[in-house]
């Protein structure tokens, strides 16, 4: 059926059922971009006002078991021009970009502006839910972008409710 992942068991079952071929789709290429001057790579010592960047690793693990080719998480400091440049480059090579942090309205929240600067468009911004209100969705050309909140619990909830269905949809789910 559409949406079935071709595991070893599914391939064996198809062959045993006499299927000469199975229609498949390329797995979506996903980029993860965390943002924030306060973030420090996992395992590095923390200075004053710094926190470990746990969201990138969490999302890579969450998506690794899904129908997606996931690149290593990238990080950008709170600089709108730098983020816009990174988004433009990622959009050339990926089907989905997931950003974490910077989707709200604070002084250092640059995802929405950077998306527009990169030639993208906002489909929706903010959802009436907690945790997870500062969720952003948009596109850069044919690349989908989901901007998740920076709080790890909020990022996990919104990734479960919005990102996973987006990743699963191209496979027919």
Annotation keywords:
173 residues, alpha/beta, two-stranded parallel ribbon, elongated
Tell me, briefly, the overall form.
elongated
* Cα-atom radius of gyration: 18 Å
The level of helicity is 25-40%
Instruction: Average the pLDDT over all residues and give the rounded result.
Output: 89
Q: State the major sheet.
A: 7 strands, mixed
Structural class: alpha/beta
Query: From N to C, what is the helix and strand string?
Result: HEEEHEEHEHEEEH
Q: What is the tally of helical segments? A: 5
What's the number of extended β-strand segments?
Answer: 9
Distance between the termini: 9 Å
- Which percent band covers the strand fraction? 15-25%
Q: Detail the poorly predicted runs.
A: none
Please, could you describe this protein's structure?
The structure is a single chain. The protein has 173 residues and is an alpha/beta fold. The chain is built from five helices and nine strands, in the order αβββαββαβαβββα. Strands 1, 4, 5, 6, 7, 8 and 9 form a seven-stranded mixed beta sheet that branches. Strands 2-3 form a two-stranded parallel ribbon. Helix 2 (55-64) packs parallel to helix 5 and helix 3 packs across helix 4. The longest helix is centred in the last third of the chain and has 17 residues, at 152-168.
């Amino acid at each position: 059926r559409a949406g079935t992942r071709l595991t070893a068991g599914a391939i064996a079952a198809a062959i045993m059922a006499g299927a000469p071929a199975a229609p498949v789709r390329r797995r979506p290429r996903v980029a993860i971009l965390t943002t924030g001057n306060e973030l420090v790579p996992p395992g590095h010592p923390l200075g004053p006002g710094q926190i470990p960047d746990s969201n990138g690793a969490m999302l890579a693990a969450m998506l690794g078991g899904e129908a997606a080719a996931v690149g290593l998480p990238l990080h950008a400091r709170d600089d709108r021009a730098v983020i816009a440049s990174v988004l433009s480059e990622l959009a050339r090579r990926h089907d989905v970009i997931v950003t974490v942090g910077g989707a709200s309205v604070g002084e250092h929240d640059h995802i929405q502006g950077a998306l527009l600067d990169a030639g993208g468009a906002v489909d929706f911004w903010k959802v009436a839910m907690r945790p997870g209100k500062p969720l952003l969705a948009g596109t850069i050309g044919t690349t989908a972008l989901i901007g998740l909140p920076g709080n790890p619990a909020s990022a996990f909830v919104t990734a479960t409710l919005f990102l996973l269905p987006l990743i699963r949809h191209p496979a027919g789910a």
